[in-house]
User: Fold Molybdopterin-dependent oxidoreductase from Lujinxingia vulgaris.
Amino acid sequence: MTRFNRREFLKTLATGSAALLALRFTSGCEFVDVETFGTAGATPFVTPQDDGVWFWQSGNSIAKEDAPDIAADDWRLTITTGDQELGALTYQQLRELGAEGEELTYFKTLRCVFSLNLGPLLTSLIANGLFTGVPLAAVLDAIAIPQDAVKIRTFGADGFTSNIPLERLTSEDQLPVMLAYELNGEPLSRLRGGPVRLIIPEMWGYKNMKWLERLDFTASDEAFGVYETVRFRGVESIDAPGKMALANHTITLAGRSATLEGPDVTIVGVAVSGDAAITEVRFSVDDGPEEQADLLGDDADEVRQSLSPALQTLMADAAQSDDEWPLPNVWVRWSATLEGLSPGSHTLTVRAFDSQGRAQQLDTGDPLTVAQAVRVPFEISG
Ligand SMILES: Nc1nc2c(c(=O)[nH]1)N[C@H]1C(S)=C(S)[C@@H](COP(=O)(O)O)O[C@H]1N2
Ligand SMILES: [Mo]
Assistant:
Protein backbone atom coordinates (compact mmCIF):
# COMPACT_ATOMS: atom_id res chain seq x y z
CA MET A 1 0.00 0.00 0.00
CA THR A 2 1.30 3.42 -0.91
CA ARG A 3 1.31 5.79 1.98
CA PHE A 4 0.34 9.37 1.52
CA ASN A 5 3.15 10.87 3.55
CA ARG A 6 4.10 14.42 4.21
CA ARG A 7 6.81 14.58 1.58
CA GLU A 8 4.50 13.36 -1.14
CA PHE A 9 1.84 15.68 0.12
CA LEU A 10 4.10 18.72 -0.13
CA LYS A 11 5.28 17.56 -3.53
CA THR A 12 1.70 17.34 -4.75
CA LEU A 13 1.13 20.85 -3.50
CA ALA A 14 3.89 22.01 -5.77
CA THR A 15 2.71 20.25 -8.90
CA GLY A 16 -0.28 22.20 -10.11
CA SER A 17 -2.17 20.49 -12.89
CA ALA A 18 -1.25 16.91 -12.01
CA ALA A 19 -3.50 17.40 -9.04
CA LEU A 20 -6.52 17.64 -11.33
CA LEU A 21 -6.16 13.91 -11.78
CA ALA A 22 -6.82 13.72 -8.09
CA LEU A 23 -10.51 14.05 -8.89
CA ARG A 24 -10.32 10.34 -8.71
CA PHE A 25 -7.08 10.12 -6.85
CA THR A 26 -5.44 6.78 -6.37
CA SER A 27 -2.72 6.06 -3.88
CA GLY A 28 -2.19 2.38 -3.44
CA CYS A 29 -5.42 0.77 -2.42
CA GLU A 30 -7.12 4.03 -1.60
CA PHE A 31 -8.85 6.73 -3.51
CA VAL A 32 -10.79 9.86 -2.90
CA ASP A 33 -14.06 10.33 -4.63
CA VAL A 34 -14.92 13.98 -4.91
CA GLU A 35 -17.85 15.74 -6.43
CA THR A 36 -17.35 19.22 -7.71
CA PHE A 37 -19.15 22.14 -6.19
CA GLY A 38 -22.38 22.62 -8.08
CA THR A 39 -22.43 26.31 -8.78
CA ALA A 40 -19.61 28.64 -9.63
CA GLY A 41 -20.02 32.37 -9.34
CA ALA A 42 -22.64 33.41 -6.85
CA THR A 43 -22.03 31.22 -3.82
CA PRO A 44 -24.88 31.32 -1.33
CA PHE A 45 -23.72 31.79 2.25
CA VAL A 46 -25.56 28.61 3.23
CA THR A 47 -24.89 25.64 0.96
CA PRO A 48 -27.90 23.36 0.36
CA GLN A 49 -27.08 19.85 1.58
CA ASP A 50 -28.23 18.30 -1.70
CA ASP A 51 -26.15 15.80 -3.52
CA GLY A 52 -23.95 17.52 -6.10
CA VAL A 53 -24.20 20.92 -4.42
CA TRP A 54 -22.71 20.19 -1.01
CA PHE A 55 -19.52 18.27 -1.72
CA TRP A 56 -19.25 14.55 -1.19
CA GLN A 57 -16.09 12.87 -0.19
CA SER A 58 -15.36 9.41 1.02
CA GLY A 59 -12.12 9.42 2.94
CA ASN A 60 -12.60 5.68 3.12
CA SER A 61 -12.70 4.68 -0.53
CA ILE A 62 -16.37 3.95 -0.91
CA ALA A 63 -18.63 4.96 -3.79
CA LYS A 64 -21.72 7.04 -3.09
CA GLU A 65 -24.01 4.12 -3.87
CA ASP A 66 -22.34 2.20 -1.06
CA ALA A 67 -22.76 4.92 1.55
CA PRO A 68 -24.35 3.51 4.69
CA ASP A 69 -28.12 3.77 4.57
CA ILE A 70 -29.26 3.88 8.17
CA ALA A 71 -32.86 4.53 9.16
CA ALA A 72 -33.15 6.90 12.13
CA ASP A 73 -34.93 4.20 14.14
CA ASP A 74 -32.03 1.82 13.57
CA TRP A 75 -29.30 4.28 14.51
CA ARG A 76 -27.49 3.45 17.70
CA LEU A 77 -24.33 4.91 19.15
CA THR A 78 -22.22 2.61 21.26
CA ILE A 79 -19.80 4.10 23.77
CA THR A 80 -16.94 1.86 24.78
CA THR A 81 -13.53 1.69 26.33
CA GLY A 82 -11.81 -1.17 24.59
CA ASP A 83 -13.99 -4.27 24.94
CA GLN A 84 -16.11 -2.80 27.66
CA GLU A 85 -19.38 -1.07 26.80
CA LEU A 86 -19.95 2.12 28.78
CA GLY A 87 -23.29 3.04 27.31
CA ALA A 88 -25.45 3.34 24.23
CA LEU A 89 -27.76 5.90 22.71
CA THR A 90 -30.64 5.64 20.25
CA TYR A 91 -31.74 8.31 17.80
CA GLN A 92 -34.87 8.90 19.80
CA GLN A 93 -32.91 9.39 23.02
CA LEU A 94 -30.68 11.87 21.25
CA ARG A 95 -33.70 13.81 19.96
CA GLU A 96 -35.19 13.74 23.46
CA LEU A 97 -32.04 15.32 24.86
CA GLY A 98 -32.42 17.95 22.18
CA ALA A 99 -36.07 18.56 23.04
CA GLU A 100 -35.17 18.84 26.74
CA GLY A 101 -33.14 21.94 25.98
CA GLU A 102 -29.74 20.56 25.03
CA GLU A 103 -30.19 21.32 21.32
CA LEU A 104 -27.91 23.79 19.66
CA THR A 105 -27.37 25.16 16.17
CA TYR A 106 -24.34 26.79 14.64
CA PHE A 107 -22.77 27.68 11.34
CA LYS A 108 -19.89 25.49 10.34
CA THR A 109 -17.81 25.47 7.20
CA LEU A 110 -16.80 21.94 6.30
CA ARG A 111 -13.57 21.78 4.35
CA CYS A 112 -11.66 18.74 3.20
CA VAL A 113 -7.94 18.69 3.82
CA PHE A 114 -7.50 17.52 0.23
CA SER A 115 -8.43 21.05 -0.81
CA LEU A 116 -4.83 21.80 -0.03
CA ASN A 117 -3.39 19.66 -2.73
CA LEU A 118 -6.24 20.16 -5.15
CA GLY A 119 -5.58 23.65 -3.96
CA PRO A 120 -7.00 26.53 -5.87
CA LEU A 121 -7.53 24.11 -8.74
CA LEU A 122 -10.91 23.16 -7.45
CA THR A 123 -13.56 25.22 -5.81
CA SER A 124 -15.12 22.12 -4.38
CA LEU A 125 -14.43 20.37 -1.10
CA ILE A 126 -15.80 23.28 0.89
CA ALA A 127 -19.36 24.04 1.99
CA ASN A 128 -21.09 25.91 4.76
CA GLY A 129 -24.28 25.21 6.66
CA LEU A 130 -26.30 25.48 9.85
CA PHE A 131 -25.92 22.24 11.80
CA THR A 132 -28.28 21.32 14.62
CA GLY A 133 -27.73 18.67 17.24
CA VAL A 134 -26.79 18.00 20.84
CA PRO A 135 -23.37 18.70 22.39
CA LEU A 136 -21.43 15.48 22.72
CA ALA A 137 -20.57 16.49 26.28
CA ALA A 138 -24.28 16.40 27.18
CA VAL A 139 -24.55 12.82 25.93
CA LEU A 140 -21.46 11.81 27.89
CA ASP A 141 -22.82 13.31 31.12
CA ALA A 142 -24.40 10.01 32.02
CA ILE A 143 -21.28 7.98 31.16
CA ALA A 144 -18.50 7.06 33.56
CA ILE A 145 -15.53 8.19 31.48
CA PRO A 146 -12.35 6.29 32.37
CA GLN A 147 -10.08 8.54 34.45
CA ASP A 148 -7.04 7.92 32.30
CA ALA A 149 -8.74 8.57 28.93
CA VAL A 150 -7.03 11.15 26.71
CA LYS A 151 -8.70 10.54 23.36
CA ILE A 152 -12.00 9.49 21.91
CA ARG A 153 -11.60 7.24 18.92
CA THR A 154 -14.49 7.69 16.50
CA PHE A 155 -15.94 5.07 14.15
CA GLY A 156 -18.29 5.42 11.19
CA ALA A 157 -20.56 2.67 9.87
CA ASP A 158 -18.49 2.60 6.65
CA GLY A 159 -15.31 1.70 8.54
CA PHE A 160 -13.84 5.22 8.54
CA THR A 161 -12.06 6.15 11.77
CA SER A 162 -10.67 9.27 13.43
CA ASN A 163 -10.28 10.73 16.92
CA ILE A 164 -10.88 13.78 19.09
CA PRO A 165 -8.62 14.77 21.97
CA LEU A 166 -10.74 14.43 25.11
CA GLU A 167 -9.72 17.87 26.36
CA ARG A 168 -11.49 19.40 23.34
CA LEU A 169 -14.83 18.48 24.93
CA THR A 170 -14.25 20.70 27.92
CA SER A 171 -12.70 23.70 26.17
CA GLU A 172 -14.84 26.70 26.97
CA ASP A 173 -13.65 29.20 24.41
CA GLN A 174 -14.93 27.12 21.52
CA LEU A 175 -18.38 26.02 20.42
CA PRO A 176 -19.12 22.48 21.57
CA VAL A 177 -18.49 19.39 19.50
CA MET A 178 -21.94 18.21 18.45
CA LEU A 179 -23.81 15.09 17.46
CA ALA A 180 -25.61 16.65 14.53
CA TYR A 181 -28.93 15.36 13.20
CA GLU A 182 -30.01 18.31 11.07
CA LEU A 183 -28.40 20.47 8.42
CA ASN A 184 -30.10 23.68 7.34
CA GLY A 185 -33.19 22.67 9.30
CA GLU A 186 -33.64 19.36 7.48
CA PRO A 187 -32.77 15.86 8.67
CA LEU A 188 -29.15 15.14 7.87
CA SER A 189 -29.19 13.29 4.55
CA ARG A 190 -27.64 9.92 3.89
CA LEU A 191 -24.69 11.32 1.94
CA ARG A 192 -24.04 13.98 4.57
CA GLY A 193 -23.63 11.23 7.16
CA GLY A 194 -27.17 10.96 8.48
CA PRO A 195 -28.90 10.12 10.66
CA VAL A 196 -26.12 11.41 12.96
CA ARG A 197 -22.61 12.74 12.36
CA LEU A 198 -20.03 14.50 14.47
CA ILE A 199 -19.46 18.18 13.89
CA ILE A 200 -16.35 19.88 15.25
CA PRO A 201 -16.33 23.59 14.48
CA GLU A 202 -12.66 24.27 13.86
CA MET A 203 -11.53 20.92 12.49
CA TRP A 204 -10.92 19.58 8.99
CA GLY A 205 -13.58 17.50 7.25
CA TYR A 206 -12.11 14.14 8.23
CA LYS A 207 -12.67 14.75 11.95
CA ASN A 208 -16.42 15.21 11.32
CA MET A 209 -17.41 11.54 11.38
CA LYS A 210 -20.39 10.62 9.22
CA TRP A 211 -22.72 7.72 10.09
CA LEU A 212 -21.26 7.76 13.59
CA GLU A 213 -21.68 4.39 15.30
CA ARG A 214 -19.08 4.11 18.05
CA LEU A 215 -17.02 6.28 20.39
CA ASP A 216 -14.17 4.58 22.18
CA PHE A 217 -12.35 6.14 25.12
CA THR A 218 -8.67 5.37 25.22
CA ALA A 219 -5.70 6.19 27.40
CA SER A 220 -3.45 5.97 24.36
CA ASP A 221 -2.32 9.26 22.89
CA GLU A 222 -1.15 7.57 19.71
CA ALA A 223 -2.38 8.91 16.41
CA PHE A 224 -5.55 7.09 15.39
CA GLY A 225 -7.70 7.11 12.27
CA VAL A 226 -7.62 6.56 8.52
CA TYR A 227 -6.27 10.03 7.75
CA GLU A 228 -4.18 10.28 10.88
CA THR A 229 -2.31 7.03 10.39
CA VAL A 230 -2.60 6.08 6.73
CA ARG A 231 -3.28 8.91 4.34
CA PHE A 232 -1.26 11.57 6.16
CA ARG A 233 1.01 9.34 8.13
CA GLY A 234 3.68 11.31 9.95
CA VAL A 235 1.95 14.66 9.62
CA GLU A 236 1.60 15.67 13.24
CA SER A 237 -1.13 18.31 13.18
CA ILE A 238 -3.40 15.97 11.23
CA ASP A 239 -3.96 13.93 14.40
CA ALA A 240 -4.32 16.74 16.90
CA PRO A 241 -5.35 19.50 16.96
CA GLY A 242 -6.57 18.88 13.40
CA LYS A 243 -7.54 22.50 12.82
CA MET A 244 -8.40 23.79 9.37
CA ALA A 245 -5.74 25.95 7.79
CA LEU A 246 -6.19 29.58 6.89
CA ALA A 247 -7.08 29.26 3.22
CA ASN A 248 -8.84 30.81 0.32
CA HIS A 249 -10.63 29.44 -2.74
CA THR A 250 -10.84 31.74 -5.74
CA ILE A 251 -14.06 30.53 -7.24
CA THR A 252 -14.37 32.56 -10.43
CA LEU A 253 -11.07 31.39 -11.82
CA ALA A 254 -11.21 28.04 -10.07
CA GLY A 255 -7.45 27.89 -10.39
CA ARG A 256 -7.63 27.09 -14.06
CA SER A 257 -6.12 29.34 -16.62
CA ALA A 258 -9.17 31.08 -18.04
CA THR A 259 -9.81 33.57 -20.78
CA LEU A 260 -11.85 36.51 -19.64
CA GLU A 261 -13.24 39.56 -21.26
CA GLY A 262 -11.66 42.82 -20.12
CA PRO A 263 -10.91 45.46 -19.36
CA ASP A 264 -12.73 45.02 -16.00
CA VAL A 265 -13.27 41.60 -14.43
CA THR A 266 -15.14 40.77 -11.24
CA ILE A 267 -14.02 37.71 -9.33
CA VAL A 268 -15.39 36.01 -6.23
CA GLY A 269 -14.14 33.50 -3.72
CA VAL A 270 -14.41 32.20 -0.18
CA ALA A 271 -11.90 32.17 2.67
CA VAL A 272 -11.94 30.35 6.01
CA SER A 273 -9.65 29.66 8.95
CA GLY A 274 -9.94 27.06 11.72
CA ASP A 275 -10.53 28.70 15.08
CA ALA A 276 -10.12 32.20 13.67
CA ALA A 277 -12.17 34.69 11.68
CA ILE A 278 -11.20 36.04 8.28
CA THR A 279 -10.34 39.69 8.66
CA GLU A 280 -9.16 40.63 5.20
CA VAL A 281 -8.62 39.34 1.67
CA ARG A 282 -6.08 41.06 -0.59
CA PHE A 283 -5.43 40.63 -4.27
CA SER A 284 -2.89 41.84 -6.77
CA VAL A 285 -2.52 41.55 -10.52
CA ASP A 286 0.86 40.89 -12.13
CA ASP A 287 2.57 41.38 -8.77
CA GLY A 288 1.43 44.99 -8.64
CA PRO A 289 0.29 46.71 -5.45
CA GLU A 290 -2.14 44.77 -3.26
CA GLU A 291 -5.71 45.92 -2.91
CA GLN A 292 -8.48 44.86 -0.56
CA ALA A 293 -11.23 42.61 -1.81
CA ASP A 294 -14.75 43.30 -0.51
CA LEU A 295 -15.88 40.88 2.15
CA LEU A 296 -19.49 40.06 1.32
CA GLY A 297 -22.03 39.53 4.01
CA ASP A 298 -19.44 39.94 6.67
CA ASP A 299 -22.09 41.25 8.97
CA ALA A 300 -24.93 39.20 10.30
CA ASP A 301 -27.69 41.36 8.82
CA GLU A 302 -26.42 41.11 5.30
CA VAL A 303 -26.23 37.35 5.55
CA ARG A 304 -29.65 37.10 7.16
CA GLN A 305 -31.24 39.06 4.36
CA SER A 306 -29.79 36.67 1.81
CA LEU A 307 -31.43 33.64 3.45
CA SER A 308 -34.83 32.03 2.97
CA PRO A 309 -37.39 32.76 5.73
CA ALA A 310 -36.88 29.25 7.16
CA LEU A 311 -33.12 29.68 7.34
CA GLN A 312 -33.56 33.13 8.87
CA THR A 313 -35.55 31.55 11.67
CA LEU A 314 -32.91 28.90 12.13
CA MET A 315 -30.15 31.52 12.12
CA ALA A 316 -31.91 33.26 15.01
CA ASP A 317 -31.22 30.07 17.02
CA ALA A 318 -27.55 29.95 16.10
CA ALA A 319 -25.06 29.94 18.96
CA GLN A 320 -22.95 32.56 17.19
CA SER A 321 -24.05 36.05 18.13
CA ASP A 322 -24.63 38.85 15.66
CA ASP A 323 -21.79 40.85 17.20
CA GLU A 324 -19.15 38.25 16.47
CA TRP A 325 -19.13 38.49 12.67
CA PRO A 326 -17.17 37.51 10.69
CA LEU A 327 -17.33 34.17 12.49
CA PRO A 328 -14.44 31.88 13.35
CA ASN A 329 -14.51 28.56 11.45
CA VAL A 330 -17.04 29.93 8.99
CA TRP A 331 -16.30 31.08 5.49
CA VAL A 332 -16.36 34.64 4.30
CA ARG A 333 -17.27 35.31 0.70
CA TRP A 334 -15.32 37.99 -1.06
CA SER A 335 -15.43 39.78 -4.34
CA ALA A 336 -12.97 41.99 -6.20
CA THR A 337 -12.96 43.92 -9.42
CA LEU A 338 -9.79 43.87 -11.45
CA GLU A 339 -9.81 47.08 -13.42
CA GLY A 340 -8.28 48.26 -16.67
CA LEU A 341 -6.71 44.97 -17.72
CA SER A 342 -4.90 44.98 -21.05
CA PRO A 343 -5.37 42.08 -23.52
CA GLY A 344 -2.90 39.24 -22.95
CA SER A 345 -1.57 37.17 -20.07
CA HIS A 346 -1.88 38.13 -16.42
CA THR A 347 -1.39 36.60 -13.02
CA LEU A 348 -3.75 36.99 -10.11
CA THR A 349 -2.58 36.56 -6.53
CA VAL A 350 -5.07 36.37 -3.66
CA ARG A 351 -4.33 35.96 0.02
CA ALA A 352 -6.44 35.91 3.15
CA PHE A 353 -5.69 37.15 6.66
CA ASP A 354 -7.21 35.99 9.93
CA SER A 355 -7.96 37.26 13.42
CA GLN A 356 -4.97 35.40 14.85
CA GLY A 357 -2.58 37.47 12.78
CA ARG A 358 -1.94 34.81 10.17
CA ALA A 359 -1.50 35.73 6.52
CA GLN A 360 -1.30 33.56 3.44
CA GLN A 361 2.00 33.81 1.62
CA LEU A 362 3.22 32.48 -1.70
CA ASP A 363 5.54 30.19 0.14
CA THR A 364 4.16 29.13 3.46
CA GLY A 365 6.02 26.96 5.91
CA ASP A 366 3.18 24.65 6.88
CA PRO A 367 0.27 24.42 4.44
CA LEU A 368 -1.75 22.59 7.07
CA THR A 369 -1.76 25.76 9.17
CA VAL A 370 -1.62 28.44 6.51
CA ALA A 371 -2.35 27.47 2.91
CA GLN A 372 -0.33 29.03 0.13
CA ALA A 373 -1.65 32.19 -1.45
CA VAL A 374 -3.73 31.53 -4.54
CA ARG A 375 -1.84 32.35 -7.71
CA VAL A 376 -3.66 31.92 -11.01
CA PRO A 377 -2.70 32.79 -14.58
CA PHE A 378 -5.44 34.12 -16.83
CA GLU A 379 -5.85 35.73 -20.25
CA ILE A 380 -7.72 38.82 -21.24
CA SER A 381 -9.08 38.42 -24.75
CA GLY A 382 -7.98 41.02 -27.27
N1 LIG B 1 -17.83 7.83 8.24
C1 LIG B 1 -17.15 8.68 7.47
N2 LIG B 1 -17.06 9.97 7.87
C2 LIG B 1 -16.37 10.84 7.12
C3 LIG B 1 -15.71 10.43 5.93
C4 LIG B 1 -15.83 9.08 5.54
O1 LIG B 1 -15.29 8.63 4.52
N3 LIG B 1 -16.57 8.23 6.34
N4 LIG B 1 -14.98 11.33 5.20
C5 LIG B 1 -14.53 12.51 5.94
C6 LIG B 1 -13.95 13.50 5.07
S1 LIG B 1 -12.36 13.21 4.57
C7 LIG B 1 -14.61 14.65 4.75
S2 LIG B 1 -13.87 15.89 3.90
C8 LIG B 1 -16.02 14.85 5.15
C9 LIG B 1 -16.88 15.05 3.92
O2 LIG B 1 -18.20 15.28 4.31
P1 LIG B 1 -19.34 15.48 3.24
O3 LIG B 1 -19.31 14.30 2.30
O4 LIG B 1 -20.60 15.61 4.00
O5 LIG B 1 -19.03 16.75 2.50
O6 LIG B 1 -16.54 13.77 5.90
C10 LIG B 1 -15.63 13.14 6.77
N5 LIG B 1 -16.31 12.13 7.53
MO1 LIG C 1 -11.68 15.10 3.50
